[in-house]
Amino acid sequence: MSDKVKGINTVCIHSGELHDLEYGGAVSPLYMATSYDYQVKSGDLYPRYFNTPNQQALCQKISDLEHCEASLIFGSGMAAITNALMAFLHSGDHIVVQTSIYGGTYHFLTELCAHYGISHDFVDGSDQKAFSDKIKSNTKVIYIESPSNPLLEVIDLNMISALAKSRDLVSIIDNTMASPVNQNPALFGVDVVVHSATKYMGGHSDILAGTISCSKAHRDRIFSSAKMFGANLSDYTIWLLERSIKTMGLRVACHNANAQFIAEWLEAHPNIAKVHYPGLKSHASHEIAKRQMKGFSGVISFELAAGLNAEQFLEALRVIKRSLSFAGVESTALLPAATSHSIVGEQARKTMGISDHLIRLSVGIEDVEDLIRDITQAINVIK
């Protein structure tokens, strides 16, 4: 695809596509083989080496979406996160991490990394001095998540990348909540960008995948260990993911618009105590979000007014599904304390600011009036 083509929807559809040279089909052909001729010009093609035709094509699309030189595709978001971290961390190393992060990442850092002799410090993501003060002689990585799951905290990417470069550290961001449509951390100097492609890239709650985007040099370093960990994605799922990404720009635009409308409506509702959404002027990092995001995502977190039961509210919903994960075309809601962050423990949740009553709403692409109507009737049921 020509470098002059910049439109997000055009990139989603055409970047990295494979051409059907035999029949002229309109979509990329699927190469399911796990065994290839090792003497052909393309070299040793093997799924675990991340270099089969469909793998290479989708890596190009994701690299273009994230404005990076190279990408790798994994079997899950956690596979992408752990492979990125383990490529730059070894026994005796240290990592600085923002406090408010995905529960799975928190558990990996606090439990599994300890077995490998890797230490960590959690810091307030909005405080540059907090990051700087925790950097030690053995620190190798600064890891952030912006917007964060589930509180939608937004971190100043310019600040993080500048700090990391000044101390010769690798900066890594989980960009899942934003999607490449809304935010491109590499443009702000962040070194490594990871995604749970299960979310906005897949977008239909039926694909499990993860991605890493970075420079070619960082890609080579990550690949050297990733090829042995064996967390590559199957070519059939890669083909499905490419198909899903073709509509990502359109879907995310609708997610953004619906979430902004509902967040503003919730904030004005007398039975809602607090709303977390970076698109709101009341959000602590709204100005930072405006500088580095094109849209504010489709996820909102909120708390009901005192006396209203959050679990009963979820049970009363009829259109919005009580379900794990987020970023599908259908709206879903859950209690992070009982799901994504149950694994971190009560004290850690309090430190993060996640109450037992916090509701995370993933706003889908349904008609927004129907979603408002569903929330309204659920509140009325439990009042």
Would you kindly provide a written description of the structure presented here, covering whatever features stand out?
This protein is α/β, with parallel strands linked by helices and 383 residues long. It folds into two domains: 8-245, 3-Layer(aba) Sandwich (Aspartate Aminotransferase, domain 2), CATH 3.40.640; 248-382, Aspartate Aminotransferase, domain 1 (Alpha-Beta Complex), CATH 3.90.1150.10. It is 39% helix and 15% strand. The protein has 14 helices and twelve strands. It has helices spanning 8-14, 53-66, 77-88, 103-115, 128-134, 157-166, 179-182, 216-229, 235-245, 248-267, 286-292, 310-316, 346-352, 368-382; strands at residues 70-74, 94-98, 119-123, 139-145, 170-174, 192-196, 210-214, 272-276, 299-304, 321-322, 332-334, 359-362. Strands 1-7-6-5-4-2-3 form a seven-stranded mixed β-sheet, with helices on both faces. It has a five-stranded mixed β-sheet with strand order 8-9-12-11-10, covered by helices on one side. Helix 7 (179-182) links the parallel strand 5 (170-174) and strand 6 (192-196). Helix 2 (53-66) runs parallel beside helix 9 (235-245), helix 3 (77-88) crosses helix 8 and helix 12 (310-316) packs across helix 14 (368-382). It starts with 7 loop residues before the first helix and ends with a helix. The mean pLDDT is 95.
